[in-house]
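Morning run. Coffee first, then this:
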Amino acid sequence: MKVVLRWLGRLVAVAVGVVLLLQVYYFVCIGWYKHADPSNTAFMRSHLALAQQKNPNAKMEHQWVPYARISDHLKRAVITSEDSRFAEHEGVDWEAISKAYENNERVGNEKAGQSGGGKRRGAARIKGGSTITQQLAKNLFLSGERSYLRKGQELMITYMLEFWLSKQRILEIYLNVIEWGNGVFGAEAAARHYFGVSAAQLSASQAAQLAVMLPNPRFYDTRRGSPYLARRSAVIVRWMGDAELP
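And here it is:
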């Protein structure tokens, strides 16, 4: 029994050591990103690997551009659509998470009522409470799996990002690595893919459309005439002037 306990203790120690080393790795990488631009992300590599399984010649559309060469319209539109309190919170917007939870509880109850024969209502939407910083943490380092462990790791990386990087740098990296379509990553590639202009030349309406696409970019890549996309983009255009830029 003592031998078994001894080996269990060693295994636990090794597991804890691996986890700590992984945190050190993330911490050092993020410190490096304070001045160096990431050439790709875990999400990019995963997407490309899957695409190349179907087509060995598959490539990504991606071109890094500095913060100053990204339209302020896009910055404001993305903040308005994805994280309106970006300049205020410290990485996690607990207020938004609480509201998202309440909304999703309501949506779940509505769907349960519909499945039980209740009258069908308008399409209710499940909402998330992830901030721009949290989305960046996930895209830079993590897989797409959903688990409490992965979410916990996402939170740790989120606070590391906020420790090392300014809000402007976080937004700059986010806009350069986020997915905007099937194999399309970053603001420059998205602007050229959808509108044939550079990221610096995006108009307010074009920027709003790109911002609305973010939660489901591959879907909207093939449905650019979506009525929802048009309606939501118009709403973002009306509100984006109030967004605070870092």
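The beta strands are 61-62, 179-181, 184-185. Good start to the day.
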